Amino acid sequence: MIHPGDDTARPLMGTFADWAPALTADPTSTPPWNGARRPLNGLRLLAPVEPTTKIVCAGATYASHLLRLGLKVPDEPTAFLKPYQAMIGPGEDIAYPAVTNALDYEAELVAVVGSTRIADPRDPLRDVLGYTVGNDVSARDLQFGGALGGIDLFSGKVLDRTTAVGPWIVTRDEFGDTHPDLAITLTVDGEERQRDRTSSMIWGTGDLLTYADARTSLHSGDLFFTGTTAGVGHETGAYLQPGQQVTVTVEGIGTLTNTVGPRPATADRHAGGKAGG
After folding, report:
1. CA dihedral sign, ordered 129, 18, 122, 224
2. Which contacts of 155-158 are long-range, i.e. CB under 8 A and separated by 24 or more positions?
3. Closest by CA position to 4, among listed 39, 30, 31
4. Which segment, 1-5, 140-144, 147-151, is predicted with the most confidence on average?
5. How far apart are CA 201 and CA 181, in angstroms?
């Protein structure tokens, strides 16, 4: 647990499921500590996700993103799953997989489920522990280069060590019990590429959680990426290049910075068409 007042951190005891449900029910409660406070400076922050976690990602949730791509607003949300192996933490390199030549960034607000499960689909935010920052990196040439001419979310979204999350979780009580209205930005080497507010989403976080939970039950520790806004590289062809620094900031939560790793010497690359994601 981070203590911003004195820039210290204190380790929690057990797994996420051991302490998150109680803290979600009462953010003022005292979680089980596992040692004394330590200076935050010098600690290596890991992605706030455990190997058994489900990572659910929504797509097409900002009208501005759909407008840039010439797509209509869908009648209901859409989502997909990411494996744990796709995740990296703050400061870690974004892998450049050999199978792609179109690595793209996506700044996102990420909700973290804290309760054992969603108790009431009419009010799922009560079961959210808090929020963190995400960068849903995608391989666009694979995503839109399916063998049958369709979308291949598996190839485009599951690639090992590409999707960043962190640097920490800010508990829900800091934002209230409604969908938070927060500024979200992304820069590449200091150049701003994305800027919006989470209030611009077509569906709120609660609506997205209800949609997902009706299809695959959400449990303590599960992450939910809420989708990205306009400005992704796929809109202009300005994809990520090795050595570039990608920084995502969400107001009231923090900043997530990662550097794109080296491109493999040899690669099996595929071309694909343009569409939304």
Report:
1. positive
2. 155/99, 156/277, 157/57, 157/80, 157/82, 157/86, 158/82, 158/83, 158/85, 158/86
3. 39
4. 140-144
5. 10
Residue 182 CB contacts under 8 Å (≥ 6 apart), including other chains:
109, 175, 197, 198, 199, 250, 251, 252, 253
Give dist(CA 135, CA 63) in Å, integer: 19
Q: How far apart are CA 261 and CA 146, in angstroms?
A: 25
- What are the residues facing 116 on neighbouring strands? none
Helix (H, G, I), strand (E, B) or coil at 65: helix
0.70 exceeded by pTM: yes
User: Which tens digit of pLDDT belongs to each residue from 178-198?
Assistant: 999 999 999 999 999 999 999
Three-state DSSP at 231 gives coil
Q: What is the DSSP string of 100-122?
A: -S-EE--EEEEEEE-SSB-S-TT
CA distance 176 to 222: 20
Of 132, 199, 113, the closest CA to residue 170 belongs to 132
In degrees, rounded to 5, the angle at the alpha carbon of residue 82 between the alpha carbons of residues 81 and 84 is 135
- As a 3-state breakdown, the chain gives helix, strand, coil percent values, each rounded to 5, of 20, 30, 50
The CA–CA distances, whole Å, from 110 to 24, 29, 175, 265 equal 16, 23, 14, 34
Encode pLDDT of 194-218 as tens digits: 999 999 999 999 999 999 999 999 9
* Distance (Å) of CA 5 to CA 37, 39, 40, 194, 228: 12, 12, 11, 30, 31
Query: Cα(235)–Cα(221) distance, rounded to whole angstroms?
Result: 33
